[in-house]
Write a structure and sequence with these properties.
The protein is mainly α and 56 residues long. The chain is built from 2 helices and no strands. The protein has helices spanning 5-11, 24-49. The protein is elongated. The protein starts with a helix and ends in a 7-residue tail after the last helix.
Length: 56
């Protein structure tokens, strides 16, 4: 049976998963930590590249 997207959306009420939302502070801390780790990763990658050599 075919149905339009609008009719499907109207059937969905409330949340569609059983996962509880993270508290805002937890999400904030995760992004803060990820930002610091990403900055460290970029610094390590820059050092690992060494000096550019354009001689092919």
């Amino acid at each position: 049976m075919w149905c339009s997207d609008d009719s499907v959306v109207s059937l969905i009420r409330g949340r569609i998963t059983n996962f509880e939302l993270w508290p805002a502070i937890t999400v904030e801390q995760a992004y803060e930590r990820l930002g610091k780790e990403w900055d460290q990763l970029e610094e390590i990658a820059i050092v690992a590249q060494g000096v550019p050599d354009f001689r092919d």
